[in-house]
Each structure stands twice: as structure tokens, then as C-alpha cells.
Amino acid sequence: MTDNTYRWSRDRALNGTFLGHLGPDERHYLLSDSDRRAVIGVLADRTTPIHLSELADEVVLATAPTTVDVDAHRREFEIVLHHNHLPRLDDAGVVEYDAATNRVDPVRNSTALSP
């Protein structure tokens, strides 16, 4: 996967406007995975909650190679998001993830995104 589509958003996240409440080790760990970087890039621009399936759609459509079956990849990616990435981001305080409703809410803290 490539995450160039969300470069501007990711750069804002990397500069501390979205992940600024995290220490360097935790921020590095979360950003060490390309899928999580893509998710963070999508969420960095959001101010409202997003459903898991919509988040998976946005990330997969932006990052999947053209040779991939997008529908199958999206379903697989939803599972990975649900069981792996979103719980990690929730534990770090980057998102609030309700696994029962599949609602992802980007957390805004004292270093929230500026206009």
C-alpha cells in the first residue's frame, strides 16, 4: 500500500496536531505501520465520527493497487481495522472506537487540529 494520497493530512498528524498528546515512542510505534498511517491520514481531517466500513472504503480506495479486488480487500481491511488497528489507536487515545456500533470518533485534545 502507498499512503501518498493522504500526505498533507498525515504531515499535519506527524507535526503533532493530531498525535501531539503522544510521546515520541508511542507516536513512532503507531506510525510504523503503513495501514495505520493511512487511517491516521484519513482521520486527521475529520471532525465527525465515521463508520468502520466508510473508513475502510476511504483508505482502500486511496491506497490499494489497481490490480486488487477492492471489494474483497475492503472486507479484509475492515476485519484488520476492527481487531488490530482501531483498538491500538483507541488505547493510545487517538480515536474512540465503539466496537459494538463500529463507530470511529477522532479524539480532539488540547493540540487539536488548527484551521
Automatic annotation (TrEMBL):
A Pfam match: DUF7344
Species, as recorded: Halorubellus litoreus
Source species, domain of life: Archaea
InterPro entries: DUF7344
Protein's name according to its UniProt entry: DUF7344 domain-containing protein
Domain DUF7344 residues, every copy: 30-104
